[in-house]
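User: Sequence in, structure out. Go.
Assistant: Echoing your sequence, followed by the structure tokens.
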Amino acid sequence: MSGKAELSKGEIVKPSSRPPSGVETARARGGRASRQAREISMYMRQLMACLEIGKALTSTLDMEEILHTVLSRLSVLVPARNWSLLLVEPESSSLRFEVAVGLAPELLENLRIPLGEGIAGTVAATGEPLLVADVGSDPRFSNRVDRLSGFVTKAVICLPLKIRGSVIGVVEIVNPQDSCLFRPESMTILSILADYVAIAIGNAMNYRKIAALSLTDTVTGYYNTRFLHDFLDSLLGEGSGKQKGVSLVFVDMDEFKTVVDTHGHLVGSRVLKEVADVMASRLTPADRLVRYGGDEFVILMEGCAKDKALQRAEEIRSTVASTPFLGELGLSIRVTASFGLATYPQDASTKEELMRLADQCMFLSKERGKDKVTVYRR
């Protein structure tokens, strides 16, 4: 056949779909360039969003505003079905849900995730981020939240929030829509984001602690007079809803100087702390206990009518009088207190008048023999 290829009748030769080795088609080059451009664009958007988040988070110390900023910016930066921000509770060595997007808050209110349990617990315990594209193949995944909520978790990105090397919480991105986020190169941007969030939350926590200290009595751990005046100004101020009312109880320890003279100031301070704890044990979440100064206290019963407040003040007086104090020191110190009660707006129209009337009633209890409750009656 003289070395030439011949075609048999009816035979069709199709051109090869592959280009010669080492040759890239224009379409392939265009597709690769387009893909690279999209990735560069995505990374630029992420970087700009991180800068925006950084500026926004460092401009406030309010925790609620910080969390709102986190959620709104993150939703744009990393679209996902669910978001969770969990903070570490040192006393229980667990995580609690501070914010959860896509899940009913009441389902998670009392839920705690022990450190080391599940993806979030593992990240909190190790301080290392986890990118899990398929939770079904990861033995660390716990479906406890899914069982509780009916949600189906498929993929998770979990980032630790660290301050000076200590984990204060984690951010969970559940079922992210962009698979590129699971690439190792995405971790740089996500880690920068987590650092910003951690710094902002840490600053807000420190601010809360400082603010709380400014309103807290150092001896008893309960509120101080600064809180008392701020609270009453807010409650009784213009437009504060005066119809709700508040009953105010002045409490003054009886013959407490004898305790100090007999046992010393340090023991006296410990007795005051235990007395405050006993009184607080009889209060409701709507009540506030204030150390007014020395051996005096004020009890604020918000929204409590006079007759009910009188009944509760009697219970507190009786409990204090019947409780022996400092038993762990081998002592059995007994004390009593005199109480005075007035109610706003039934008895008084201003903060000053309310406090004056309650104080006068307390002194009447002293004059009537101490260890009594005197209520103001018009």
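User: And one key feature?
Assistant: The radius of gyration is 33 Å.
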